[in-house]
Design goal:
single chain; 74 residues; 4 strands
Amino acid sequence: MREIAREPWSYTFTEQGPGDYILTVVCGGAGLYDYSIRLDQQQVAGYQKEGMPFILRLIEQVRFNQSPFEKQKV
């Protein structure tokens, strides 16, 4: 596992192996919790094309609404 980026109390972005990325986002208001997803092929392509700006947008999407990411949850 290789840590690519981290912001305490916000997110951690890691590469588990070649092309296998995990994004963990701190979510919640009064009660905080981590929500981790494995990036799908489309998201990996977005990251490879745009870099961290893509991941930062994805973080906000996950933080706002986790339900679209249920199938990716790890």
